Amino acid sequence: MTFSPNLYADLQQMLHYEFMRNAFEAGTIISVIAGITGYFVVLRRSAFVAHAFSEIGFAGAAGAVLLGIPPITGLLLGSTLGALAIAALGRRAANRDTQIGIVLAFALGLGLLFISLYAGYASEAYSILFGEILGISSSAVLLTLIASAGILIAVGALYRPLLFASLDEDVAEAKGLPMLFLGTAFLVVVAVAVSFAVQITGVLLIFSLMVTPAATAQYLSRRPSTAIAISIGIALMATWVGLFVAFYTIYPVSFFITAIAFGLYLLVRGARLVIRPRKVNGQP
Amino acid sequence: MQANLIVAENLAAGYREKTVWRDANFAFGRGEFIAVIGPNGAGKTTLFRLLLGLQQPISGSVKIFDAPPKRGNPQIGYVPQRHIIDSDTNVECLELVRLGLSGKNWGFNPYSHKDRDAAYAALEGVGATELAHRPLGVLSGGELQRIFLAEALVSNPDILLLDEPLSNLDMRRETDLLHLVDGVVRKRGVTALLIAHNINPLLPHLDKVMYVANGRVATGKPSEVLTSERLTELYGIEVEVLRDPHGNVAIIGVEEHHGNMA
């Protein structure tokens, strides 16, 4: 593939390939979902939990590969069971870093065992760990679309109670909000979003779409709805530009997605330091 | 004579294995300002949890508007005991106040004008209009307490429960906040219960005081409750109440027993 200065022609050339069209479609859907759920992941400081889901999902996916069923089934099963287990542990369980870390390490080990039992060892492991957006089929895109529509509806319904519970847990509880239900519903939504996002970024790079865009967006707006919109925009930009650049180079897409997301994060933090120096205590 | 908002009869509170206090009888009317005082662990917050319906009485009864407390009662505004909001929280204050009104509603509705106006009005009511668009994470303790107060008042409650709102404030902010609460009590006819450690800054504003200690609750006018006889009876040990010429009280003989008060 040769890159020309005519970007439109480049796009046409790229989208001529079905695998690139699929990659753009899946990437777009996932960026929207990851941008939205990521906002709540960052607000609730549940990033570590999101990462744990993806690694428990890895064990599930590797097991699925071994059994000859689609990896996404194993991913969904693994991460959702992980979500329910953490939710069942109670309100503050999402902050139990040590226990989650212990389970996470075991899950990765289990995934390694399953993968090593499978003949296509290296390539399967590689694609689950680091993503294989260029290998997504049309039917996988459709499945992603359906699941993402479900996530959108769920987040839409939960939006205000979840925001309230995330910002002010004690008052939300006293106001009669169902905290256990909210916590569980949130973790399951994140688990499903993570499972589909893994197709793109892989298990290990899940933060590039689930955390970095939302964390960047939080610096740019104090209004949750606006911050969510910006978070989606950043995730979309990282995915689109990442796919485009990767198509014309020999380097992996996941690298470019993480690099763009990280670059924007640094840019925003740097700009904030320059534009609005933090107030020092007691000084204007 | 107006009927009482909150009435408790022979009320006992605690957990299955342990009674925190018992035999409490009290009645609070509309527009009363009540301080809840007592050593750590005496069961002050437990009282709030009972009123909020987060916990059930062991025995006896407590009623709010003639009905048992239930979780999510819109007639109660609550400011829990809290020290800080994470300094990374970059969400504007207006949003939190608005959630005090509409945070229970399911469905995506980022900004209704009715909510927004009510939230601004609540911020104005606590003199915090200029904080509306500031992020929660950068506020000082006093500013944060005013935002929490606005969040509690935005739904126009009849009862206000404030759990140690003064704990992180210097004396000037303490006075400011007390004047604010006093104003809310008088202007809106709200009944406010405020948990505090030090009674003295509260004395000029109070209608009643509730002293929780040693498994017992004493309630009444400050001049009735804060006497050597009453507190000695309450604690079961010799307690002396001293008054200086400005009306400040010092309670002697209690503080050193904090550790083993149950």
Quick rundown:
The complex is a heterodimer of chains A (284) and B (262). Chain A is an all-alpha fold and 284 residues long.
Report what the structure shows.
The complex is a heterodimer of chains A (284) and B (262). Chain A has 284 residues and is mostly helical. Chain A contains 13 helices and no strands. Chain A has helices at residues 7-15, 18-43, 47-67, 71-88, 97-117, 121-130, 138-167, 169-174, 179-201, 207-210, 212-220, 224-247, 253-275. The longest helix of chain A has 30 residues, at 138-167. Residues 280-284 of chain A have low confidence and may be disordered. Chain B has 2 domains: 6-75 and 158-260, Rossmann fold, CATH 3.40.50; 89-156, no CATH class. The model of chain B is unreliable at 256-262 (pLDDT under 50). Chain B has helices at residues 44-51, 93-102, 113-125, 141-153, 171-188, 222-225, 228-235, and strands at residues 6-15, 18-28, 33-37, 59-64, 76-79, 159-163, 191-196, 208-213, 216-220, 240-243, 249-252. In chain B, helix 2 (93-102) packs parallel to helix 4 and helix 3 (113-125) packs across helix 4 (141-153). The radius of gyration of chain B is 19 Å and the shape is globular. Chain B has 262 residues and is an alpha/beta fold. Classes of the chains: A mainly alpha (284), B alpha/beta (262). At the A-B interface, helix 7, helix 8 and helix 12 of A face strand 5 and helix 2 of B.
